[in-house]
Amino acid sequence: MIYCGIDWAENTHDVALVDDSGQLLAKRHITDDAVGYKILLDLLGEYGDSEDNPIPVAIETSRGLLVAVLRTGTRKVFAINPMSAARYRDRHSVSRKKSDPGDALVLANILRTDMHAHRPLPQDSDLARAIAVLARAQQDATWNRQQIANQLRSLLREYYPSALEAFAKWANGLCRPEARELLKAAPTPARAARLTRTQLQAALKRAGRKRGIEEEADRLRDVFRAEWAHQPPLVEDALGKQMLALLIQLEAACTAADDLANAVEDEFPRHPDAEILVSFPGLGVQLGARVLAEIGDDRTRFADARGLKAYAGSSPITRASGKKSAITRRWVKNDRLNHAGYLWAFSALRGSPGAMTHYRRRRDAHGDWHAAAQRHLFNRMLGQLYHCLHHRKLFDESTAFPPSGQEMETAAA
Fold first, then answer.
1. What does CATH list as the number for 3-117?
2. DSSP string, 327-389
3. What would the DSSP string read from start to end of 182-215?
4. Per-residue pLDDT at 363
5. Is it the case that residue 180 has pLDDT exceeding 80?
6. Which class for 205: exposed (0-12), middle (13-18), buried (19 or more C-beta within 10 A)?
7. Average pLDDT over residues 182-187
8. What's the N-to-C CA distance of the chain in angstroms?
9. Is residue 14 classed as helix, strand or coil in its secondary structure?
10. pLDDT at 404
11. Domain ranges of the chain
C-alpha cells in the first residue's frame, strides 16, 4: 500500500510517497500549474496508481484546482485539518522543526497510521457541488450585506436620525431599494427637509414601488421636516459624503445577494433531493440549498443519522472525567449548517404544528431555554431528513410528529 502526502502552497507544492513501513519512496517539488499536475499524476502512476487501485492522498485543503485534479476517478482525498497535522508533527520530532517537505511526509504518514480515523472528501455530484458554491456565496453575500447595513445605520445615527425613523417601518430597512434611493437623493437631513412631495414620489417610483406612493410620500415628508438635532453644516456635508461612499458598497452587496439568490433558484430545483428538502416545513429554496450544500448527496458520507447530527452540531456532547460529568452543546461543528439549522427550526415553528408542540414541550416540561429548545427541534428534524433522503420519501407531518398520550385522546374526542 502506498500513501501520498501533499503540502500545498500558493505557487508550489511538496509531494511525499511512503509505503506500509513508513519508508520514503519518493518526493517531488511541483509547480501549481498544468505541468506540475502532470508530474504529480505521472509520479503516482509510476508507483502503481490506477483506476482500480488509486493511491490515497492527504492534503490540508478541500478546494482548489489541485484537489479537483486529484478527485477525478475513484481516488480518496483526505482534507486534514492543519491543527491535526501540527499535532502529528510532534510525534516525529520534539525539536519543533518545520519544513514543507517534512510536512508532506507527515501527511503521508497520517494516512499510513490513522487513515481509518479521517474522513475522505465526499463523492458529491457535480450539480451538488455547483449548488454548494452558489449557496455558500449567497450566504456570504447576505452576511456582507447585513454587515454594511449595520455600518450605515451606525453612521446615520451620528447625524441623520430622521432617515432611521423614516425607514423603521419598512421590512429590511436600509437594504430596501426605497431607502437607498432616498439616501442618494438626500444624503443629509438638511437636503431631506427640502424634498418636495413630487420629488419623494419620484424617488419611490424609481425604487420600483407601485402602491401607496402618495400616502408614503406624505409620511416621509412629515418625518423629514420634523424637529431634529443637527450637526454643524460643514460636518453634516462631510458625513453625507461618507454615507454616499458606504451606500455604494451597500448597493453592490444587495445586487450580489439578489443575483446569487436568483442563480440558486435556477439550479437548486434541478437536483433530485430538492423536492424532499422543500417538503420539510421551514425549508424553502434558499435555505434548502444551504442544507444541501453542507450535507451533499453522497449517501455514504454519514454512517447513520447520529453522524449527521454531530456534524451539524445539533446533538449534545458528554464530557466526563472521574466523578464529574457534563452534557453541553458542541463547539466543533459545521458552522454554516448549524446556522441554517437555526433558521430552519425557527421557521418550522409556524409551518408545522408538531414542531411547535415539540418546541413548547422542551420549553415547558424540560425547562430548556429558547436556543436549546430550537437546537433540540433541529436535531430531531435533521434525523427525519436523513431518513427521508435515504428512503426517498417526502416529509409527512403525522409520521414526523405523531400525537401521543393526552394529545391522542384530545384528537379522538
1. 3.30.420.40
2. EE--SSS-HHHHHHHHHHHHHHHHH-HHHHHHHHHHHHTS---HHHHHHHHHHHHHHHHHHHH
3. HHHH-SSHHHHHT--HHHHHHHHHHTT--SSHHH
4. 93
5. yes
6. middle
7. 94
8. 67
9. strand
10. 67
11. 3-117, 130-266, 275-412
